[in-house]
Design goal:
Layout: E1 8-10, E2 13-15, E3 19-21, H1 37-45, E4 51-57, H2 75-90, E5 95-99, E6 118-119, E7 128-131, E8 134-137, E9 142-143, H3 146-165, E10 170-174, H4 180-185, H5 200-203, H6 205-218, E11 223-227, H7 241-252, E12 259-263, H8 271-275, E13 282-286, H9 291-299, E14 305-308, H10 310-314, H11 318-324
Parallel strand pairs: 3-4, 3-14, 4-5, 5-10, 6-9, 10-11, 11-12, 12-13, 13-14
Antiparallel strand pairs: 1-2, 7-8
Helix pairs in contact: 1-2, 3-6
Length: 356
């Protein structure tokens, strides 16, 4: 039997297969960060994955970075996510919520009272973000004070609690893609001179403090973390990524996490070979995998489970398609972030027509 379809232990959960759906922003929430009813169908359709990881969810309103992204702060948001987890569990699936604070990758029009985005240092990133009025240039963020950093860490703690209340099987810290945790990790976006800046050890402190808060709520066996060394997305630069990430992963052992999720996109270093031996939980790899490359990663011991993004987006029944060697639907990039069912819940499954 293919190793893709063998069980694997991830934290306190035993997954029936080693196919994980990646977190992918889909922008189907309303302006208040409440997921609409289509979100339940979308995730339930994909419940045959060993594990679903949600799109990035902001832990507080100041963490929002894009239009129509969901949160886990208000009662209405929690109630909407309860429908999602109930639908996934009814379909036999398991689902973790990814917590994503965008930090400086935001815009005042997306934040409470037109607030300035926050970051470890007041460095304006290059680029633009999607707002209600279209693309807008990033602005110079405001540097967080020490007391504010403590408050943000507590927001992650409360978001973890609320995710569990909403029925999630666990939570993932998004520490990649140039968002707030990676802004602290990276030397190019963190110029602080206090305990959260300077050395690689100090720059990792925010991530580790957030994980400690999340683990205190959920237990390490229900917490994962995603990193993507050298992805350099959202204007992120780091002078010594090998030092940064080996130092971080060495410290993760203290938390007995459910998994480390490493997605590589164009890295010059084989971080899987570098980081896997340093981690004491399940090791998940992602980044442009196909069935053959996923099989190879499992067979040669580079991974415990494999993470698929757009392939799951366009193929709700991806595990069954892999089992049968069936052709795959092609993702429609034009509908990745558009509202509504098109390109979201209407991708055909084998031998069935989806109801919208």
């Amino acid at each position: 039997m293919s190793q893709l379809f063998t069980p694997v232990r991830i934290g306190r959960h035993t997954l029936p297969n080693r196919l994980v759906m990646a977190p992918m922003t889909r922008s189907r929430a309303d302006d208040a960060g409440v997921p609409d009813d289509l979100v339940s169908l979308y995730y339930a359709q994909r419940a045959s994955a060993g594990l679903l990881i949600t799109e990035g969810v902001f832990p507080s309103a100041m963490g929002k970075g894009y239009v129509r992204t969901p949160g886990i702060e208000t009662d209405a948001q929690i109630a909407a996510w309860e429908k999602v987890t109930a639908a996934v569990h009814a379909a036999g699936g398991r689902i973790f919520m990814q917590l994503m604070h965008c930090g400086r990758i935001s815009h005042p029009s997306l934040l409470p009272d037109g607030a300035q985005p926050v970051a470890p240092s007041a460095i304006r990133p290059a680029g633009q973000t999607w707002t209600g009025s279209g693309l807008q240039d990033f602005v110079t963020p405001r540097e967080l004070r020490i007391d504010e950093i403590a408050a943000v860490i507590d927001e992650y703690r409360m978001a973890t609690r609320r995710a569990l209340e909403a029925g999630f099987d666990g939570v993932e810290l998004h520490a990649a893609s140039g968002y707030l945790p990676e802004q602290f990790l990276s030397s190019g976006s963190n110029l602080r001179q206090d305990q959260y800046g300077g050395s690689a050890t100090n720059r990792a402190r925010f991530v580790l403090d957030v994980l400690a808060a999340m683990v205190a709520e959920a237990g390490g066996d229900r917490v994962g973390i995603k990193i993507s060394p050298e992805m350099n997305f959202n204007s992120i630069e780091d002078a010594s990524p090998r030092e940064t990430y080996t130092g971080l992963v060495d410290r993760l052992r203290d938390f007995n996490l459910a998994y480390l999720h490493v997605a590589l996109f164009g890295a010059t270093t084989d971080y899987h070979a570098l980081l896997r031996p340093r981690f004491n939980g399940a090791y998940l790899i992602g980044g442009g995998l196909g069935q053959a490359s996923a099989e190879a990663a499992l067979s040669d011991g580079r991974a415990d489970a494999t993470v698929f993004g757009s392939a799951f987006l366009a193929n709700p029944d991806l595990p069954e398609r892999f089992r049968r060697g069936a052709p795959l639907n092609t993702p429609d990039k034009n509908t990745f972030y558009s509202p509504g069912a098109e390109g979201y819940t209407d991708y055909p499954q084998l031998g069935a027509t989806n109801a919208i």
